[in-house]
Amino acid sequence: MAALIIILIISDSFSFVLNKSLYLPFIFGAIGIIFGWFGIKGDVRKCLIGVNTLALGFYLIVFLMAMVGFQEP
């Protein structure tokens, strides 16, 4: 039950961000990578940069699919 509530909260907050601007997740991702780069040294830094890079790549794929779509040959 708690997992469902958490998923709903994340979904609503992501929808709120997308309603403001489609480019806002790119800005948040870039800021996350910058803060991760200047953050704590060691494995935490690698994890922060890696997770933010993966999230940014995932959003780029979703963004391109939404804007360009699946074009048939």
Describe, in plain words, how this protein is organized in 3D.
Keywords: Membrane, Transmembrane, Transmembrane helix. The chain crosses the membrane at residues 23-40, 47-70. The protein is an all-alpha fold. The chain has a domain at 21-67. Helix content is 79%, strand content 0%. It is built from three helices and no strands. Helix 2 packs antiparallel against helix 3 (43-67). The longest helix has 25 residues, at 43-67. The radius of gyration is 15 Å and the shape is globular. The model has no long low-confidence stretch (mean pLDDT 82).
Features of the shown structure:
73 residues, mainly alpha, globular
What does the secondary structure layout of this molecule look like, with pairings?
Layout lengths: L1 H19 L3 H14 L5 H25 L6
Low-confidence stretches: none
Radius of gyration: 15 Å
> How many strands, what sense, and barrel or not for the largest sheet?
none
Helix percent band: over 70%
Global shape:
globular
What is this structure, in a nutshell?
With 73 residues, the protein is an all-alpha fold.
